[in-house]
Amino acid sequence: MPPVPERNASVWRRFVESRNGLGFLFMLPAAAFLLCFLTYPLGLGVWLGFTDARIGRPGEWIGLENYLWLMDDPVFWLSVFNTLFYTTVASVLKFGLGLWLALLLNRHLPFKNLFRAIILLPWVVPTVLSALAFWWIFDSQFSIISWVLMKWGIISQPINFLGDPWNARWSVIAANVWRGIPFVAISLLAGLQTIPQSLNEAAAIDGATPWQRFTKVTLPLLTPIIAVVMTFSVLFTFTDFQLIYVLTRGGPVNATHLMATLSFQRAIPGGQLGEGAAIAVAMIPFLLAAILFSFFGLQRRKWQQGAD
Q1: Is residue 57 part of a domain?
Q2: What is d(CA 305, CA 64) in angstroms, rounded to the nearest whole number?
Q3: Are 128 and 28 part of one and the same domain?
Q4: Nearby residues of 259 by Cβ (< 8 Å), 6 or more positions away
Q5: Which residues cross the membrane (predicted)?
Q6: Does residue 1 surpass a pLDDT of 50?
Q7: Are 262 and 79 in contact (CB under 8 A)?
Q8: Lowest mean pLDDT among 133-142, 221-230, 274-283, 294-303
Q9: Do 153 and 217 have their domain in common?
Q10: At what angle do helices 19-34 and 4-17 cross, to 10 degrees?
């Protein structure tokens, strides 16, 4: 019978040399990172949502009282409406404009690589810096938009972009769309690059119009990429915090408060950690819905490969 240390060394060697074992070892650092910086904060947030914890006080278990309180909180429901409206409108605009840019950049254009690099600029610029730039653009007195429209005689006084509730909503949506279009455009462009050109050429020979080639060839083959890209886009938009907090802090009159910004306001400046955590936990069902959208969108790949 071989000694125990030698037998253990043999087992360890086989484990390391196997494909699954090596993959498991490579995944350990990422798993540890996710456990420390994602799983633990999520679990702590869920726990705090069932307590009356405040800053400087651990709190006691109170069950569903925070969630029952939120059910009767009009500001919370306004933030839910703002979040859904903000996410839906911004995501639709980013998809439409991003797809148009991707199709345009997929053509044989002069200086195509330069245009691709320029389009990436809104995405690589820090969010806070972008928000400060839009803060100046939407300023109630010194807005460049109001100045140009007044010079052209279209308006007689500056537009109150961030002081009127609906103007503020559309202003933050415009800022988010400007920042998010590059991610959608470049990702969809990468998907377009994988579609064989021979398929479009064959459809053109058969007499298909450009619109028919797009709807019958390009769009179906691009569906899995669209599902993944739009899932990430929706997640980024739904959980947006920096842009809203720098531009409006949730104002005016809570008109631009998203669930993320309201959670922060209640938990940190307001000191109600339990209530803020409950608002954050209430975001989870919406995020799961976005993930399920991606999952069912990816099922189209089976259809493309000839499966039922």
Answers
A1: no
A2: 48
A3: no
A4: 79, 80, 83, 279, 280, 282, 283
A5: 21-40, 75-105, 117-138, 219-238, 277-298
A6: no
A7: yes
A8: 294-303
A9: yes
A10: 80
Q: Which amino acid is at 127?
A: T
Backbone angles phi, psi at 143, to 5 degrees: -65, 130
Domain with residue 168: its CATH number is: 1.10.3720.10
Cβ neighbours for 268, distance < 8 A, ≥ 6 positions apart = 55, 276
Residue 144 to residues 135, 165, 173, 269, 278, Cα–Cα distance (Å): 11, 20, 18, 33, 40
Q: Specify whether the CB–CB gap between 165 and 255 falls below 8 A.
A: yes
Return the residue matching tokens 């398929």.
199
Within-domain flag for 306? no
Strands (E), the chain: none
The span from the CA of 308 to the CA of 91, in Å, is: 31
